[in-house]
């Protein structure tokens, strides 16, 4: 069975600073995808960034980047130049079962002015 | 296409009543998923469809829960004899399983159920 662990229930960052959200996962699949989703308060979940496990290069999307350590099964999200609009729940997810994503419990990110 | 839509957005019901939620996926998506999310938790997988076939069900999906996708388009999730423990946000998501599949799920805004 797949498990996804987010060990930081809450994180706080000042506007314009950088923050890193942690995620570890466990899967027996050899080919899988990893995702970070953002869920603003009372809004739908949207994809932030995606990483394919067979790619060694870390994915980047503008201010968002990941540090993917396949051997350690670690997949952290770095948010640079944090903005007030980044405040949300962030969920790490793994897709290796072929049909559905397994999500972690989430990290609540607070951005202070 | 306006994305995944869910209806109703909020439902308050009394224990023992039946409720039904509807999900309209992105039109070209052949996969549809139902997740449940309780406060402070991540989404938990309930079931998924490929076209009209229900291919997987979680152990979380008790006998009181039934999901359908009769024509491979919209889906319904019915909960019979609701219990207070059923109070949660029910999320629907869709995806495409074709050759350009990225694995990404597209989520609706959810249907929040409160059982009194």
Description:
Chain A is an all-beta fold and about 110 residues long. Chain A has strands at about 5, 10-15, 20, 25, 35-40, 45-50, 60, 65-70, 75-80, 90-95, 100-105, 105-110. In chain A, the strands form three sheets. In chain A, strands 2, 5, 6, 10, 11 and 12 form a six-stranded mixed β-sheet that branches. Chain A has a four-stranded antiparallel β-sheet with strand order 3-9-8-7, with no helix packed on it. In chain A, β8 and β9 (about 75-80) form a beta hairpin. The N and C termini of chain A lie far apart (about 40 Å). In chain A, about 35% of the residues are buried. In chain B, the strands form two sheets. In chain B, strands 2, 4, 5, 6, 9, 10 and 11 form a seven-stranded mixed β-sheet that branches. In chain B, strands 1-3-8-7 form a four-stranded antiparallel β-sheet, with no helix packed on it. In chain B, about 0% of the residues lie in helices and about 50% in strands. Chain B has strands at about 5, 10-15, 20-25, 30-35, 45-50, 55, 65-70, 75-80, 90-95, 105, 110-115. In chain B, a hairpin with a 2-residue loop joins β5 (about 45-50) and β6. Chain B is globular. The interface of A and B includes residues 45, 99, 103 and 105 of A.
């Amino acid at each position: 069975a797949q498990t996804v662990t987010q060990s930081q229930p809450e994180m706080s960052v000042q506007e314009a600073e950088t923050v890193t959200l942690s995620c570890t996962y466990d899967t027996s699949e050899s080919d899988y995808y990893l995702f970070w989703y953002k869920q603003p308060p009372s809004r739908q979940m949207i994809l932030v960034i995606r990483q394919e496990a067979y790619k060694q290069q870390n994915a980047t999307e503008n201010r968002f980047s990941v540090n993917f350590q396949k051997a350690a099964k670690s997949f952290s999200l770095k948010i640079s130049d944090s903005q007030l609009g980044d405040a949300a729940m962030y969920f790490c997810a793994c897709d290796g079962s072929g049909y559905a994503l397994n999500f972690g419990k989430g990290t609540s990110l607070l951005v202070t002015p | 296409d306006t994305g995944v839509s869910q209806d109703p957005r909020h439902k308050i019901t009394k224990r023992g009543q039946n409720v039904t939620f509807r999900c309209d996926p992105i039109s070209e998506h052949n996969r549809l998923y139902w997740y449940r999310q309780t406060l402070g938790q991540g989404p938990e997988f309930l079931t998924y469809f490929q076209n009209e076939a229900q291919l997987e069900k979680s152990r979380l999906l008790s006998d009181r829960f039934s999901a359908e996708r009769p024509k491979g388009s919209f889906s319904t999730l019915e909960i019979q004899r609701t219990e207070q423990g059923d109070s949660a946000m029910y999320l629907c998501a869709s995806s495409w399983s074709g050759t350009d599949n990225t694995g990404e799920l597209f989520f609706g805004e959810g249907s929040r159920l409160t059982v009194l």
